[in-house]
Design goal:
79% helix
Length: 105
């Protein structure tokens, strides 16, 4: 279905907005996960790796919880759009945090 949607259009149906939000989330999540993997691979200490893994896992749960809380009360495509937009927002912020950590290494 995603192939038939032009996300560059100014006005999109709710269904198209949901598809585009999902595509955007997949893109930023993939970049963030790649950065996380690089950071993990550059970390020498096993203790620091474990701490990093725990922090990332906790962050993933926090992202899901906050996105659910923000989208609570919406229905249908609105729920999906609001949920995914929050997921994107938080993932972009996390990607920036990981970038800063990588720059310090």
């Amino acid at each position: 279905m995603a192939e038939g949607v032009n996300c560059d259009l100014e006005e999109l149906s709710f269904f198209a907005q949901r598809i585009c939000s999902n595509l955007e989330f997949q893109k930023v999540d993939s970049i963030m996960n790649e950065m996380y993997s690089i950071l993990l691979n550059r970390t020498d200490s096993d203790d620091k790796k474990i701490e990093l893994e725990n922090r990332q896992s906790n962050w993933v749960e926090k992202r899901r919880f906050k996105s659910s809380q923000i989208s609570d009360g919406y229905r249908g495509h609105h729920l999906g759009i609001i949920y995914l937009q929050k997921m994107v927002e938080m993932t972009v912020t996390r990607k920036e945090e990981l970038e800063k950590l990588l720059q310090k290494m």
